[in-house]
Amino acid sequence: MKNRILNMLFLIAVLLLETALFAQQPNPPGQIQNGSKAKNEAYLFAHMTHTDYGRLYYSVSLDGLHWTNLNNGKRVFPEYQGHPDICKGPDGNYYIAGNTSDESPEINIWVSDDLITWKKHAVYTPDLKSTPDYSNALQRIGAPKLYYDKDSAKFMLTWHTPHKQGSKEDPEAYWASQRTLYVLSKDLKTFEGTPNRLFDWDMGTIDVFIRKVGDSYYAILKDETYPTLYWTTGKTIRIAKSKSLLGPYSLPQESISPNFREAPMLIPSPDDKIWYMYYEQYPGVSYGLSISDNLNGPWFQASGYTFYSDWDKYSLPEKARHGCMISISTKEYDSLVQKFGINKTESNPKK
To answer: Which fold has domain 43-340?
Structure first.
């Protein structure tokens, strides 16, 4: 009897250990359940790559979590240069902004009705030094981004511009001096007045984009101050909030990401109840994903980009660098796949 009990206890211990080792953790919320129809049918990730920085590549997803290359991992629009950011306008067309380098004085804008064929729409050259209370601006334009505001029926074009040169002794002075500027436009051909500063607080910010949810505007940003014990939010993704497109915006909330993350991208889940916030661990090391049911938080980090299938709740193509993610229709998804072809031989996760 004693041996039988010991054997039974041993068997139970083995089963518990196997369960602990191989148990599948819960999947991220926001997916479609019980055959319901997705409100967000598919997604496009417009991005650059580690080996071809600043050029345009596409990956797609049907669940907002697992992404696959298009066009066999080759450029989809060779003319484009910049940090890809795509915005859908009131006419149903898509617009993408870019610039050939941070030193270039021009912001280029292209337009497309299908995300496949892009045509030059406009070139905007901001007079940076005419920005009120920012006459010491350097001639630098970083990561221009677009947002269409339905309430004002205007586009907002944002970018970051510094006012200090870095040095060998203090290279961070350049980055800490980045400020987010913007200009408004009805049609992205003519632009209203001079650039303005978006935030009235004195803090380095880059990679800023705007979203409106309910009656509030949210500015998703990278805190560009270097992290220390006295500025623990440095180099993280944060959110500021306002009742108005032009502010004033609140001081940013607590960090959504760990330190040394940048280039946030925000999409709604397929069931439209959850937010997925992606961000890059630079330089091109990995991607993180934070999840919330509310842009005010709280947020939690999903497990992924480990290349271990039991742990990966999301996956992106290897060597993908940052850009933007947008929701698209099933029809648009099918057209993109038909045009460019989908790469079904992504790297296999380790077991």
So the answer is: Neuraminidase (2.120.10)
- The 10s digit of each residue's pLDDT in 168-212 is 889 999 999 999 999 999 999 999 999 999 999 999 999 999 999
Strand order in the sheet with 85-88: 85-88, 94-98, 107-112, 119-124
Place of tokens 């339905």: 150
pTM: 0.91
User: Positive or negative, the Cα torsion across 57, 58, 64, 68?
Assistant: negative
For the stretch 283-326, pLDDT in tens is 888 999 999 999 999 999 999 988 888 889 999 998 899 999 99
The letter for the amino acid at 27 is N
CB 70 within 8 Å of CB 320: no
pLDDT confidence tier of residue 22, bands split at 50, 70 and 90: very low
Q: Please provide residue 13's backbone torsions phi and psi, each rounded to the nearest 5 degrees.
A: -60, -40
* CA-to-CA dists, residue 170 to 35, 206, 233, 235, 252, angstroms: 56, 19, 20, 16, 25
pLDDT at 345: 56
CA-closest candidate to residue 107, choices 178, 157, 54, 156:
157
Locus of tokens 């697992």: 66
Q: What is the dihedral of CA 333, 336, 340, 346, to 10 degrees?
A: -20
Domain ranges of the chain: 43-340
